[in-house]
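Format notes (please read before filing issues)

Several people have asked whether sequences and structure tokens are stored in separate files. They are not. Every record keeps both together, in the order shown below: the sequence lines, then the token lines. Line labels are part of the format and must not be stripped during preprocessing.
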Amino acid sequence: MWTTLSRGAAVCGALLVVAAVGPAAAQADLAADGLRVRIDQRGQVTSLSDPVTPREYLAPGQPAPLVSIKVRGTLEPPASLAWDARAGVATMRFAAAGVRVRVRAIRKPTHIVFEIVGVDPAGAVDAVVWGPYPTTIRETVGEIVGVVRDAEYAIGLQVLNIKTLGGALLNDEGSDPSRSSVALALPWGSVLQAYALDRSRPRIVGGWNGQFPNMPVEPMPGETVVGSAIALFGCPAGRALERIGAIEVAEGLPHPIVDGEWVKTWRDLGRSYLIAAFTEETADELLAFTKRANLMSLYHPGPFASWGHYALDAKAFPNGNAGMRRIVERARAQDIRIGVHTLTNFINTDDPYVTPRPDPRLARTGSSVLTAGIDASATAIPVAAPEYFANEKANWLRTVVIGEELVRYRAVSASAPWMLLDCQRGAFGTRASSHAKGASVGKLLDHPYRVFFPTIGMQDEIAIRLAGFFNDTGVSHMDFDGHEGGLAAGQGDYGLERFAKAFFDNLKIPVLNGTSTSEPFYWHINSYCNWGEPWYGGFRESMQEYRIQNQALFARNFVPHMLGWYKLTATTSLTEMEWMLARAAGYSAGFAMSTTLAELRQNPDTGTLLDAIREWETARRRGAFSAVQRERLKDANLEFHLEPLGAGTWVLHPFHASPRFVHERIERQPGEPAASTWSLVNPDEAQPLQFRVQVTGSAGSASRLVLEVDASAAIEFAVELQAGEALVVDGTPVARAYDSKGRQKGTVTVGGAIPRLASGAHTVRFDCAFSGGIPPRVDVTFRTRGAGELVRSR
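Then the structure lines:
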């Protein structure tokens, strides 16, 4: 996927086109289409410019070392650089450490590659840092993708292998708890940065971002900083994504192709999907629901018997992979994908990696030794040191491994002699055994999900095993949920990158994939990020602010807009669904709709809800909404209804909200009415009355709600609403009650016919009974459906 060069840039078949500056060839001047880089005799980058304009983008007054090194905890910039123009190699001297580092520069048509090809003396460097390279651009900073851009121009840094981690070197583990920092905004502009660690020697790290202090990490022979490589590029801002695609092809980076198209520009990128557990017997019914909503995938939230070996649950899939393969074929015939949820490298305690014999490659936070022999019945186990066992910061399963036995313990003795107390022998189906003095006692690394984790080599095995499942079944959609589990091996973010690459390299079919986190190299493999969970409240309350904040992150990083997971229950209403669908249309975002077959069967409005999803999503994906409409659709305070007309046209109806009316308990004379009377105007055509009652306050409740319109039409509700709860009347005879988290808690039959609200002015009378020492307040908001706007596919 080569990009056609423009603006008179020369294309050369040779890989190296460089110029020497100065009689001693101490400086380098390199240019590719769109970017010119100059490096001086001190090893400092002195120019990052557009060779055509020629506008300078290097931020003045900031250090810009091509490479720095870290030795014995100290980061050192280069003292000098000697440039061999014929070989295209810069030799940098680091005076304090007595180290020389050789960097090869290769000019490609679309970018410049820098690669470390030698360190002298060998093994003298703990880490190398590329940059940071300071730029004057800060309008849009893609912290994951490594691209900074303004309205006209983009500069980017791409890591070219997994040993090169994009971002700042924050710790000896090599992990960054943020989304990423390969590009970072600063007051004067931005920086681009990357680094690599020498992993060939034993190390002690603060594992998993410091949760596991002094964690020993086994060496990875040959995995030094030599070979670490980056690409720098510049181009018009509007062509940055295209340029990254060209770099992927040129450098052999992951470049997923789906339906003959690069996944980053694929026509179905960011398309919504249905999450629901299915079996070999129920798959067809759920496929019919998926088809009716015209969603991309039917995605199983947990089809596996356990994480680790990732064998299918035999109860749901008695024919194993063959049964799943037949479901995939039936789905493919309907243009539907089948997806499954994974937990990356998490290992269940009932997985064969754990029981009946624990795999010796399970990750440990550290170890000690037995100070005396023990028999198979001992419940107090003597250890030489308590450090790893007494870690209360991160110790959920309290499990150690001794030989082929797992042992759980309640606590560690408060003083020497150190003992693991109240031990459960032969835990998780292993066999209790005798163990001799001096035997190793390893503390297994665990997690709140009550799982264990692999070391780096075992992790490769799990990734390859998982890829084999997709190859064998044809399942083509998944998530690396728990992707942060790659930190368990103590290798930092390298572990995350390595798992994704091992999985990708062993695939024989394209597999769309999301993730729980983000990494610069994995960006090339990733299809989407769908962050936002439905478990904490209703459509409006469950992480909604977080979901919206993510949209800016996605835009900065060329990631498709997604709003996360929402939950369709047996009581979900069209009002709730269209509230979410309007937000999705406003942000041009996909989503996942999580549900169950039972809930779909039980909800009387399931067909209406699926039809609404189909129409909103079709209109969104066909570009039917104008920029002005999308801005309104983003507003969480506004509601809409979309009515299909056929042939790619719809009518978008806005809802108009009244002012908020307030009803409070007020002391009156005996017999004096306590009701509130309000003036309400319907600006739209005649329609059934719709309103929302919200009980606000810290305690108390409101009950026996009565609402009367124009002193004639009264409706009553036999319901008690606690502080924080709400009642919604949507013009139908059934009202819906919601808890303080926005989750529907039940329905209420309306006492009386729903009044029809004519256009114009009305008088509304409202009353209720209050309870509680400090009674709550009741807020009432009315809504009316406005005239429609015609929208068409584009």
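For reference, the curators noted about this record: The first helix runs from residue 207 to 210. Residues 364-444 form one domain.
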